[in-house]
């Protein structure tokens, strides 16, 4: 595992997980950063009834690699008809329906200030402040105990940056983690997706130093991007941890720039692991899928691309998506449902982007239906001729209920499970027919997406 001050870019140094090889599994899929909060809508779990969709976002389609949807449920030419019926929409106990949204901060329309009351006999006396010192100043400056949130903050803050993208009259903000001493930064694709012609990117470190930045490469499918702080040197790269070692209930800390408030530290626990989350892309862009770490640490617009770390100060996730309450109230802050891309998957994608300028993803060579059905599992809609799935004996109409020991309950769940592996991995699929009978296992060697 790399320590602070060491570059994370070289093969074998991206996290060196105890239970993983140096080349971590490729990740096919997430989203919290870059749109005006007034314009930010709720994202969705496509195929998950009960979640409203981001305005203007298309349904997620792709191959099973990536899902195939029939949004109208009508079948028809070019659409896959599935024997199983559609489930009843899920009901929620709250008046508003929860939705997925990107955590984005927009500087152009946001003014955050501290309001103080004036003290004195008249307006000419000016504003005064009354302060009380609590505790021992010497005690406050003592080195914090290892494993505390305070110790984590001191270790990690120098490795997390705020990112501002300015285009014309608008500016949006997100976060990022330093992965090399010369300014390579890991962030979300949706944080920098608007950094096209005429746009500029500014990176600000914890000590206030500012750098212009350029985009190295992006991968919308996984919502991962790498940018370069121009002329940077001597920076402190973040230490990479092992997300597989996380346990539900374990304490974690989120660090980023929510609502433009740089170097913000919040804490919580791991609420769940292997949570399939699908979110629409920014401004109608490509949707992304994330095999997420769920946390109740407060994550808000602007936290996207930042750091979710364990109490050793090691990066375990990239905050990317939050659930919000829908309705007309416009609520878009944290409700304790945040989702982060596992660090090993993010780093595997980042390494490919640095080395090749693009990333490939593991696939089985089949398409799955992501609509909700009464079938428990992932319904195979179509099998690619000559692909790994066909060679293994998988057929259209089959239902996949497990990948190795991991339960699969939907098409999105199957995609997330496959994307948590690496190209060339052999996985065991538990398969039944459309009636849930004839259960058997098949082995599939994952190929690379084109």
From TrEMBL:
Alphabetized InterPro entries for the sequence = Chloro_Bact_Ser_Proteases, PDZ, PDZ_sf, Peptidase_S1_PA, Peptidase_S1_PA_chymotrypsin, Peptidase_S1C
| Superkingdom in the source lineage | Bacteria
Q: Does the keyword Zinc-finger apply?
A: no
Q: From start to end residue, where is composition biased (Basic and acidic residues)?
A: 1-19
Q: Which Pfam families match?
A: PDZ_2, Trypsin_2
For bias kind Low complexity, which ranges apply? Answer: 43-60
Domain PDZ stretches: 353-435
Q: Which GO terms describe its molecular function?
A: serine-type endopeptidase activity
Q: Which residue ranges are recorded for the region named Disordered?
A: 1-79
| Keywords per UniProt | Hydrolase, Protease
| Entry's transmembrane regions | none
Family affiliation:
Belongs to the peptidase S1C family.
The cross-references to PANTHER family, in alphabetical order and at most eight, read:
PEPTIDASE S12, PROTEASE DO-LIKE 8, CHLOROPLASTIC
Which named protein is this? Trypsin-like serine protease
Give the species this sequence originates from: Corynebacterium terpenotabidum Y-11
């Amino acid at each position: 595992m790399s320590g602070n001050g060491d570059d994370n870019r070289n093969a074998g140094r991206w996290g060196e997980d105890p239970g993983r090889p140096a080349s971590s599994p490729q990740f096919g899929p997430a989203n919290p950063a870059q749109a005006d909060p007034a314009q930010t809508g709720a994202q969705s779990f496509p195929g998950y009834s009960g979640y409203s969709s981001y305005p203007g976002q298309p349904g997620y389609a792709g191959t099973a690699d990536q899902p195939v949807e029939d949004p109208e449920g009508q079948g028809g030419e070019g659409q896959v008809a599935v024997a199983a019926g559609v489930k009843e929409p899920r009901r929620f106990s709250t008046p508003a329906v929860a939705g997925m949204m990107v955590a984005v901060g927009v500087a152009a329309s946001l003014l955050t200030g501290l309001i103080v009351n004036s003290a004195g006999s008249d307006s000419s006396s000016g504003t005064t402040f009354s302060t009380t010192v609590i505790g021992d100043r010497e005690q406050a400056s003592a080195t914090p105990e290892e494993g505390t949130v305070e110790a984590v903050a001191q270790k990690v803050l120098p490795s997390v940056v705020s990112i501002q993208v300015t285009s014309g009259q608008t500016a949006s903000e997100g976060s990022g983690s330093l992965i090399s001493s010369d300014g390579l930064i890991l962030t979300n694709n949706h944080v920098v997706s608007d950094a096209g012609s005429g746009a500029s990117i500014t990176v600000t470190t914890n000590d206030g130093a500012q750098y212009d930045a350029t985009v190295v490469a992006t991968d919308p499918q996984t919502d991962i991007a790498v940018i370069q702080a121009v002329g940077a040197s001597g920076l402190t790269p973040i230490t990479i941890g092992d997300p597989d070692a996380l346990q539900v209930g374990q304490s974690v800390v989120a660090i980023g720039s929510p609502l433009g408030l740089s170097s913000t530290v919040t804490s919580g626990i791991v609420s769940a692991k292997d949570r399939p989350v699908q979110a629409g892309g920014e401004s109608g862009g490509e949707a992304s899928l994330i095999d997420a770490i769920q946390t109740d640490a407060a994550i808000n617009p602007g936290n996207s691309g930042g750091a979710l770390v364990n109490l050793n100060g090691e990066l375990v996730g990239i905050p990317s998506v939050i659930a919000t309450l829908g309705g007309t109230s416009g609520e878009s802050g944290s409700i304790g449902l945040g989702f982060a891309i596992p660090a090993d998957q993010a780093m595997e994608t980042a390494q490919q982007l640095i080395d090749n300028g693009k990333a490939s993803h593991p696939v089985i060579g089949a398409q799955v239906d992501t609509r909700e059905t009464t079938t428990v599992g992932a319904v195979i809609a179509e099998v690619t001729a000559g692909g790994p799935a066909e060679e293994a004996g998988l057929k259209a109409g089959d239902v996949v209920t497990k990948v190795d020991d991991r339960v699969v309950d939907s098409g999105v769940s199957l995609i997330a499970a496959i994307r948590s592996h690496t190209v060339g991995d052999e996985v065991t699929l538990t398969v039944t027919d459309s009636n849930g009978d004839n259960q058997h296992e098949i082995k599939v060697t994952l190929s690379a997406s084109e």
